[in-house]
Structures are given as structure tokens and as C-alpha cells.
Amino acid sequence: MSWELIYRATVYIAEEAGVALKKSALSPNIRERMDHSVAVLDAEGRIVAQAEHIPVHLGSFYVGVKNLFKALMDEGVELEEGDVVATNDPYISGTHLNDVMVLTPVYWRGKLVAYVVNKAHHVDIGGPVPGSINPNARTIYEEGFILPPVKIMRRGELNKEALSIWLANVKTPEVAMGDLNAQIAANREGARRVVELFDKYGEKTAEAWEEAIKYGRELTEKEVERWPRGTYEAEDYLELRDRRLTIRVRLNVGRCVKADYTGTDPQVEAPLNAVLGVTFAATAFPIRCLVGDVPTNEGFYSCIEVEAPEGTLLNPKKPAAVSGGNLETSQRVADVVFKALAQAMPERVPAAGSGTMMNVMMGGVYGGKYWSYYETIGGGTGGRPGKDGVSGVHVNMTNTLNTPIEVAERTYPLLFTAYKIREGSGGAGKWRGGDGIIRAFKVLAPTRLAILADRFATGPWGLNGGATGKPGRAYIKKRDGRIIELDSKTAVDLEPGDEVVIETPGGGGWGTPL
């Protein structure tokens, strides 16, 4: 029996669990945008297989599951059949508070053989702003409710006490409960399929997983060996009101790849700090893009080493605020790694994409109930050797769909007025950058709006003589005709009839324009 057959079956188990999560979730953010990710781990907690979901989630599992197992061990917690553990503590799970990580052990004939883990972005996890992504947060305590690792289910029974504490701290408890149920159900489906795999192949399943991880490492090493060896340095920037935050990388390409972020700015009293799981994920993504078709499992991830000094933007000390680190800083880490790799392989690396997830959070009271809305808006990818960039897509560390206007208008007090390509926003070049998006809507009730974005001051860079993409922009059209320009990180109150217009960046151009 080929190990690859069992490995591929395991990949499809992760995919099937992801479908179950999407179809049973309550929030449009998960049900429509697919802001969730699933992976299957072996009995040692190593990543065996993952679905093609969100890069910042998937890469963070490599750090987050190890942190979770250590936290459980430190507390003397053992996982039994029927247990389910949940946490959203970014300093453990590896992303930000909105991402609730749910882990389920899988038992076969009384023996622990695997784990199924997923993350899903809950639209609201408490805190002072709708969507729980507070652009003005100075600490994590101003972002939302922190759930330490807890058995949300014990031997198949829901832990109602822990759940009641959680739901008492979120603005839309019905939605939170629905999404959590979907996560638990998705893991249960994944666990059922893993048991079927063991029923069919027995202990050969674990042996096949071992081979898959070994092969993932070997194949990654072979691919990296084709790259020009050396050390490549690059830096890029994030915007924080009237200052720039520097992210600097020293990338060493040898048998594997080491990224050293020494020289990156210290952590800040703002939500742009990225926990180590995010930094690892954003480092792994460009490497994964360039190594070709290799199994994305523990073997691949083990060929990447990340060094980020503690107390910096990319490895902050608690209680630094981190919500935007997962969203915006991850994008800039991917950009800076691509920029470094462009020195080694100038004919393979694209120019910078839009460089922001353009996070839009809204909420308030409507029809006697609190509502909370979250979406990210795509942009343009960078021009690439041989092709123009792609317009109007989610770029790099995000991988979500859009929120269909019909769903948003049916669910929330919103009326969309524009949704189109932002023509001409891509940078000029031999191969042009893709164009961004214009998305606009009116609010039909008093609404609190928060925006967390980047690339408003400087557009995405071009490569090899290509021009910079057009920067992003957000503004409000008041009912009296006034235009109010918005900062890339802001929270404001809207009146019924106010129109919000979002213009996302285009990608940079590649090569000198003809």
C-alpha cells in the first residue's frame, strides 16, 4: 500500500471537515467568506495534512498547536475521548483574538492516534468596537475577551459554565454559539473520517503519515537547493498615523531557509504587533509559493527557521495588542520576504500586491438587537514575470471570498452603492499590477465603523523598474455633501444615510513600462 494514497486521503479529510464547518456556520464571515482553516495532526501533534484555506491560519498551526500542548501539559491537563479544547489567546494559538482555535483528540480502539484542529474567525469576541478589531487598542485587553485553553467539551458533554462566561462577553452570543457548534461539528466529522482510515489501513496509517512528513522535508530541501545560496536583506514599512514602522529581514538560503528579523522596530502600543505564529506563517507563505508542489505538512514547515527578537513588532511581549498583526503586519512580512527573495530569483518573484486586508468592522443596535459585521476587501496582485497582475482578488495572507452583497443587505442595515474594479490603480510596468476594488455602502441605522488597513500613504512597490501601485483610500460622504477622509486605522460613528467608500490599492508593476 502506497503511503501517498493514505496521505492524500488525509488531505481530503481536512478539506471535508472544512466544508462541514463552512456549511454549518452561522455568521456570513465563515459561511460565505470561508474565514476558517482545518488541519489533521498525528498523535505527536505534528501537522500531517491541511486544507487549502487561510495562509495566516495554516502556517500559525505549526507554532500554535505546540504552544497549546505545552499549555495543557503545564496545567496537567490530559485529553480524553470526547474532549474538545478551545482557546483564542493569541500568545498561545498564534494569531489574534477573533480566531478561535478548536482541537479534538481522535481515539481508535482506545488509543490516541491523531488530532483534528481548526481555526475560525469569530466576527465578535467582545471589546469596545464592533468586530473586536480595535484600531485604537494599546493592549490586548482593549481588543476583546481572552479565552484560555479550556475543555469546551468534556467526554462529549458541553462545558456550560465555561461557555456561559464566554458568551456573556460577546455582543452577538447567538452567532458565536452557532459558529462554535460548527467548529466542534467539523472536528467531529474529521475525527470520524480519521477513524475510518485507521479501520481500513490500521497502523499503516500512522506509518504513511510519517513517510509523508519525511517526504515533505526531503522535497522541500531539494527545491531550496535549486535556489541561489546566500543571504538576502530587505525592509518594508507599516503605517501608524504619522510614523513608519520598519520590518527588516535577513534571509539565509542554504539547505533550508532561515529568516532573521533582527533590526525590526520594537513592539508598539497599537494593534500592529504580530505574535510569533503570525510571523512564522507570513514567512512560510512566500517560500511555499516558490518551492512548487510539495506536501504542506510538518516536513515543509520544519525547513523554515524564524528568529524574531522578543519585544519587537514580530514577537511582542504580552499584553501587547495584536489584532492587526494577524491582518496587516502579516501582509507586510510576506512582502518583505518576497522582496528579499527577488534578489535571489528576480525572474520568479512578483511585485508587491495590495499589501492590506482592508478590514472593515461595523455594528450597532438595529431592530432591538445588536449586530456586528466584518469583511476584508481584496485588491490587485503585483505584476509578475510574463503576466500582468490579477485585479480584484484577496492577496497573500488572506484567502477568503467576498461577502455577497445580497447576503450583507439581507442580514444587516446596509445598502451597497458600488462594487467595481478600481481601474488604473495597478502600477505601470512591462507587466502591469492588478487593479484594486471600489466598494461603497450606505448605513441605514446609527453605526459604529472601524477600519484597520495599510498602504494608504505609500502604494505597493514595483520590481525591476515597475511603478508603484496606487495607495488605498477610505472616506465618508455625509448627507450634506461633505467628504470626510479616513485614516487607515480609525473608528468613527456614522449616521443613517452616511455613505462609506473604500478604494483598495493596486499591485506594483513588474519591469520597465514599454
What keyword list fits this structure?
single chain, 514 residues, alpha+beta, 2 domains, 11 helices, 20 strands, 31% helix
Report on this structure.
The structure is a single chain. The chain folds into two domains: 3-216, no CATH class; 350-514, no CATH class. It has 514 residues and is an alpha+beta fold. The chain has helices at 3-24, 28-31, 55-74, 90-93, 160-167, 173-201, 204-225, 276-291, 298-301, 323-344, 405-411; strands at 36-42, 47-50, 84-87, 99-108, 111-121, 150-154, 157-158, 230-240, 243-253, 257-260, 304-307, 359-366, 369-376, 414-422, 436-443, 447-452, 473-477, 483-485, 489-494, 499-503. Helices cover 31% and strands 25% of the residues. It has eleven helices and 20 strands. Helix 1 packs across helix 7 (204-225) and helix 8 (276-291) runs parallel beside helix 10 (323-344). It is globular, with a radius of gyration of 22 Å. The termini are far apart.
